[in-house]
Amino acid sequence: MVKRFFSQAWLYAKGRQAAFRWEEFLLLDAAYPFVTLIFYCLLASYSFRTRDLGHWVAGNALLLCTNTCVFHLGGAFNGERYFGRLRSIVVSPSSLLGVVLESGFFPMLVSAATVTVGLVLGSLVFGVQLWGVPVGPVLLVILAAMFAASGLGLLLSACSLLGDGMHFLLNVVSYILMICTGAQFPVAQLPLPFQWFSRLLPLTRSIEAMDLLLAGSQAAAVLPLVLGELLVGLGCCGLAAVVIGGAARAAVRNGSLDLF
Amino acid sequence: MKTLRVLGSTLLLQMKQSFVRPMFRFCLIANPILNTILVYEMFRNSGQTDFAAYAILGAGLMGLWGCICFSSAGDLNRERYSGTLSQIFVAPAGFQTILWGKVLGNTLLSLGTLLFSWLTAKLLYGASFPIRSPGYLLLAFLAAVGCFLSVSVLAAWLLTLSRKTTLYMNVIEIPVILICGFVFPAEQLPRWAQILGMVLSPTWAVKLLRMAVAGVPDRAAFWRAFGTLAALTALYLVLIRLLYGEIQKQVRIRATLEVC
Predict the structure, then answer these.
(1) A259 occurs within a structural domain
(2) Are B164 and A165 in contact (CB < 8 Å)?
(3) By the number of CB atoms within 10 A of the CB, which of A52, A230, B32, B257 ranks highest?
(4) Which residues in chain A are closer than 8 Å to B170, comparing Cβ atoms?
(5) Where do the H-state alpha helices sit in chain B?
(6) Shortest CA distance to B114 belongs to which of B11, B23, B36?
(7) Residue A20 and residue B167: Cβ atoms within 8 Å?
């Protein structure tokens, strides 16, 4: 089973990259995310009239994982639909959740690297002091953030079994993450119900934890936030396991499996 | 007369086809709303008093550019997937006319992003959007529409040759928004990026719109920017003409028009 998981994951990764040359791969998975990070940091620098961009570099670096965790995992079934494989997957005894994870495994590794490199390069470009920031806790925060965001991606993937509006949904979710997680402006600026909602979202706690680490806090201070983030991820994964099964049954009943 | 009829019917068909696509609805409706909220919140506590123009105009233009990237630039690829690209390529109505009709339909529909952006700022924040030079704004607006039309056709032509349209239309969105100064002045960027922005006509379109909204005390500066925009648009039209001949020849030699 483990061997099958990795061979399928590798097949997905090859299928995704086969059409691209290495420089195009770098353009999409490294250069473009980095330009996005630079854009939002410069916007923050202009709008908040500040040169201390540590918060925005860290927040936007973490947001880079939405490319994979939200768009790739969330759109996994959409891709299968285009390849004409969705019906076979739904009727086969293999786990639907497993299929999404297989398709997202290697992109998630690339994404973890993108977030880390984004954080380091962003810090170099905007003069954020990373010297003295504990590396272990930073990596732990990145992994927790990716786990929670992946949970959200898994949950969203169920929606593509029921309709054809995944591009709309995934893009809206990526903006909600930008607006509600505190990456671009303080969560306190949002109306109270949205502040509560932000606590249910992945990345909110990770961004807070990263801010603490950049401010000189030690691992113990961010541990509750990391645990909270893991809990959000677990909740999303659990919900996804239930919802995907239900969505597949509903898709068979409604005949929406091949809905383009 | 026949050309106008083809242009009109293609324009209407394109508007209907674009609007049924969830991604286009995201770019047209959700993107300007969410961008306005994001940019407005970022500027809200900045201490700047004249930020409404950046928030409303910037978010609207970001939405407009998103529509161009994810629709006009990718429409030929969609025709390719539908198996109709070769038919419209050799149709007696003329491929150029059909392409201009498509881009015109998309661009006219996409102008709605400016309206959605203004409505969001008005309804959510009660923001006012005083226009100091309405006459100049009308002129700037028409010049901007011409500029975005030529850029769209140029992008569509360039992407006709490639089967990696999805990659390129994803990676041109943010860099152009960044370099052309959609939401903050391009003068904030390093000198080399400013020079790069100067050869991109949207930079001048944005400059003209912003000048007209803020008021035009220096008429000579307005007309200089207008002249530059007109010259760049004319240059793009010449490029489109040259590309048309070259691409027609290439797709016939290589037989790659339908290669997905």
Answers:
(1) no
(2) no
(3) B32
(4) 28, 32
(5) 2-20, 22-25, 31-44, 52, 58-67, 73-82, 85-90, 95-110, 112-125, 134-160, 165-171, 173-179, 191-198, 201-214, 219-254
(6) B36
(7) yes
What average pLDDT score do residues A94-121 get? 84
Percent of chain A having pLDDT more than 70? 98
Does residue A60 belong to any structural domain of this protein? Answer: yes
Give chain B positions within 8 Å (CB) of A28: 167, 170-171
Phi, psi of A65, rounded to the nearest 5 degrees: -70, -10
**A230 within domain boundaries:** yes
Q: What is the ipTM score, two decimals? A: 0.88
Is A166 an interface residue toward B (CB < 8 Å)? Answer: yes
A25: nearest CA partner in chain B? B167
Give the gap in angstroms from C-alpha A84 to the nearest C-alpha of chain B: 14
What confidence category does residue B243 fall into, taking pLDDT thresholds of 50, 70 and 90? confident
pLDDT above 80 for A258:
no
A49 vs B31, B47, B164: nearest CB = B47
Q: CB neighbours of B174 closer than 8 A, spacing ≥ 6?
A: A32, A35, A36, A39
DSSP string of B20-48? HSHHHHIIIIIHHHHHHHHHHHHHHTS--
A234 domain residue, yes or no: yes
B260 pLDDT above the threshold of 60 = no
A43 closest CB neighbour out of B25, B31, B42: B42
pTM (predicted TM-score): 0.89
Give how far B174 is from chain A: nearest CA, Å. 6
Count of domains observed in chain A: 1
Residue A215's domain comprises 2-11+22-254
B115 pLDDT band, cuts 50/70/90, is very high
Q: What is the DSSP letter of B66?
A: H
Q: Where on the phi/psi map is residue A150: left (φ > 0), alpha (ψ -120 to 50), or beta?
A: alpha
Could you give the dihedral angle defined by the CA atoms of residues A187, A192, A194 and A196, in that order, rounded to the nearest 10 degrees? 90
Of A35, A169, A190, the CB nearest to B175: A35
The more confident residue out of A120 and B46 is A120
pLDDT at res. A133: 87
Interface test with A, best of B24, B36, B40, B42 (most A CBs within 10 A): B42
Nearest residue in A to B48, CA atom: A47
Burial A127-137 (b: 16+ CB within 10 A, else e): ebebeebeeeb
Question: Exposed (0-12), middle (13-18) or buried (19+): which is B36, by Cβ within 10 Å?
Answer: buried
**Which is nearest to A106 in space by CA: A31, A14, A28, A21?**
A14
**Contacting residues for B229 by C-beta, under 8 A, at least 6 apart:** B143, B147, B201, B204, B205, B208
- A:B CB pairs within 8 Å: 92
